[in-house]
Amino acid sequence: MTSQFDIAVIGGGNAALCAAMTAAEAGARVLILETAPKSYRGGNSRHTRNFRCMHGGPLGPLVDSYGEEEYFADLLKVTSGKTDEGLARLAIRTSEECLPWMEAHGVRFQPSLSGTLSLARTNAFFMGGGKSLVNAYYRTAESLGVEVLYEAAVTHLELEGDRIAWVDYTHEGATHRIEPKAVIVASGGFQADTEWLTRAWGPAAENFLIRGTPYNRGVVLADLLEQGVSQVGDPTQCHAVAIDGRAPKFDGGIVTRLDCVPFSIVVNKDAERFYDEGEDVWPKRYAIWGRLVAAQPDQVGYVIIDAKSLELFMPSVFPPIKADTLEELADKMGLPPAKLRATVEAFNAACGDTSAFHPTELDGVATTGLEPPKTNWARPITEPPFYGYSLRTGVTFTYLGLKVDETAQCSTESGPIRNLWAAGETMAGSILGQGYLAGFGMTIGTVFGRIAGREAAAYAA
Amino acid sequence: MPLDLLQEARRQAEICNACRYCEGYCSVFPALHQKRVFTDGDITQLANLCHNCRGCYYACQYTAPHEFDLNLPKALAEVRRDSWERFAWPAPAARAFHTHGTMIAAASVLGFALLFLAIRAIGSAGGEGFYAALSHNAMVAIFAPAFLFPLASLAVGLRRYWRSVGGARIRWAHLVGAFGMVAKMKDLAAGHGDGCNFEEEDRFSHARRYAHQLVMYGFLLCFAATSAGTVMHYGFGLHAPYGLFSLPKLLGVPGGVMLAAGTGWIAWLKLSADREVGDATAWGGEMGFVLLLGFVAVSGLALYALGGTGAMPLMLALHLGAVLSFFLLTPYTKMAHGFYRLAALVRDAQRKQETAPGTGNEATA
């Protein structure tokens, strides 16, 4: 059976939509196969909020400039050099032309949100957030003639030599097979498949929370890897942050993040500190805390602050646990009370002159003689009431994925697959070997989605 | 019940405050993001700032079936209507009309009947034009109290509102700010200026904003026409009927056309919009009010067109009856929203001034 569609796009988030719109504008007949129902369409993109963008001068909502070298240097810092420089620079350079393209396809930007002023120069925020971007793209895609099937779960892509011969999917209780000329995979990572995460991480992964969509189970990724499609990345690497331990298992999104770590001490379940809470401003550190917490017993951490710090950070969705004494707080949080008091007293004793305290700048207010040290914002925890939050590892997306070249094309050991391209989180491991840079996922998705759409349309023409 | 409505809106506002993705849409979010805890007064103020543009609802990643089950436009619409009912004087009147379109229809019929009776019983003292059906003095005797009573009632309600939201002394700059927002209906344009999401899910359009502008400016023109007539009558001894190129007609005819078109458009849009993203229980009351206002406009225009025919006394009774009901119901129907919205925008202008950069009140993190 030949398909009435030239191109099948697997997935329904930002990268998939960018690919579909680009291909449709080039004249291709495009079908989007989105696993989620309409109300949950858009994958992790529905939880995103900004786009990291290079710019030579003020551009849209972005102020000043943010050049390629600075952008690349920021990426090198967070990935410790584990990136593909060619692909990374391609993403960075192309991001500048993406912003006007996004606006032309319905995305609206807003000034940097309150509490995120440090990103005003580098990241363009979507008005209404990622779901409004997704909504706008679906409207634009549909006006371009793209067809969308929701609750269409792709189960298999048949690799025949150097091409994909057909695509199997289920929809409304029936299985279907289509034979599009080209296929674009943009169906994200595998983080929602706890069993796969556990294979990579060990049993610790069962305690991880998944910040985004429960639909990214890596079905297509696993299917392609089994057939010998080239892979990239380490299965234990992912975008993981420390979030409120009370967050739902899936889809908690932005509201479960906690910004209070720099003003706190963080202890494990034995009431012991394990890392410098004041190493850097939070937007530059939140992404390492997921792994730090994952390495602690039971994969849990506890943030302790006192009354004077309560209003220094963005409120989170769950109110803090509150107590008049440290012992009472320890009791409420299931920590050993005597040990918590000892840890706090040791920390307090190591604090020095706090007159230079400045909540939004690296203030150098540090501990002395404490291991691990707290190198900024170190103020003694003395003023009741005391507040606590539990911290757990929240996984955004996994980095193990499909290896692509600069045309977003997939390959096997014997060479490129003629009609298969990949975009978004499913290939982001090519650029993000480890670590994360805020707003870079949307950059990768937009840049490589557009490339994949262009290449697939050219092939199908 | 009101406590539950406030509590539900508070629960949702706290989630919004941890997200902030919607900050650029309207006046609600910058005001919301400035608080860490929400008093009942804060929630009431936020509710009255909300114009039900629905941008935040369709952009929200936490709407049902998500377990957070956010529907802020609905939660705020319910608190808003409840606040109008609580603050109204007398409150039972508001509870009867805000949620019951049939009550508005019944009140209108009562208005017609009253005017029929007046025309038959009092009739004319030998005047010209409309005054041949009902004398000028009789009209004044009926409409002066019907105009002044609602104003007094609204004043009581607004005073209660102002106290509840902690309003400060009003200055000229606050009024300039608030009237500027109203004149352009900025909160229905959204921060990006593409309009709101109303009649077709997440599609942005200016339809509701333009329809509302037609109603508002049409109403104001009609009101100006009546005022002009009053001044001409008492100030200059120029009595009705007025010619086409007189001030009352030059203001009133375009005003009536705009009001009729605008109310029709709004009613049509309301039929397409998802009722569950607003105060579903008040849908009938709102629709009844829109139709009554539309009837005031259409019957006014018809009266002008048929003024010289035998249908005039009938049309006069219908028009004046509708006007009478409309005036008397003003504090107890959706018409009240204009006054409360204005008060909320004045209060918001005060908030912006209180927290202007450099005052030390801006958020630090």
Characteristics:
heterodimer, A: 461 residues, alpha/beta, FAD/NAD(P)-binding domain, Flavocytochrome C3, Chain A, domain 1, 2 domains, six-stranded mixed sheet, 10 helices, 28% helix, 21% strand, B: 365 residues, mainly alpha, 14 helices, 1% strand, elongated, disordered C terminus
Contiguous helical run count of chain B: 14
Largest sheet of chain A, in brief, is:
6 strands, mixed
User: Using CB atoms under 8 Å apart, which protein chain pair has the greatest interface?
Assistant: A-B, 37 and 36 residues
**Helix fraction of chain A by DSSP (H/I, runs of at least 4):** 25-40%
Query: Strands across the major sheet of chain A, in which order?
Result: 6-2-1-10-20-19
Strand fraction of chain B: under 5%
Radius of gyration of chain A, rounded?
23 Å
Structural commentary:
The complex is a heterodimer of chains A (461) and B (365). By secondary structure, chain A is α/β, with parallel strands linked by helices. Chain A folds into two domains: 291 residues, FAD/NAD(P)-binding domain (3-Layer(bba) Sandwich), CATH 3.50.50; 154 residues, Alpha-Beta Complex (Flavocytochrome C3, Chain A, domain 1), CATH 3.90.700. In chain A, helix 1 packs parallel to helix 4, helix 1 runs parallel beside helix 10 and helix 8 crosses helix 9. The longest helix of chain A is centred in the last third of the chain and has 21 residues. Chain B has 365 residues and is an all-alpha fold. Chain B has one domain. Chain B is 66% helix and 1% strand. In chain B, strands 1-2 form a two-stranded antiparallel sheet. In chain B, strand 1 and strand 2 form a beta hairpin. In chain B, helix 3 crosses helix 14, helix 7 packs parallel to helix 12 and helix 7 packs across helix 13. The longest helix of chain B has 30 residues. The radius of gyration of chain B is 22 Å and the shape is elongated. Chain B starts with a helix and ends in an 11-residue tail after the last helix. The chains are: A alpha/beta (461), B mainly alpha (365). Chains A and B meet through helix 4 of A and helix 1 and helix 4 of B. Chain A: InterPro entries: CobZ, FAD-dep_OxRdtase_2_FAD-bd, FAD-oxidoreductase_2, FAD/NAD-bd_sf, Succ_DH/fumarate_Rdtase_cat_sf. Chain A: Its cofactor is FAD. Chain A: It holds the Pfam family FAD_binding_2. Chain A: GO terms for molecular function: oxidoreductase activity. Chain A: Keywords: FAD, Flavoprotein, Oxidoreductase. Chain B: It comes from Tropicimonas sediminicola.
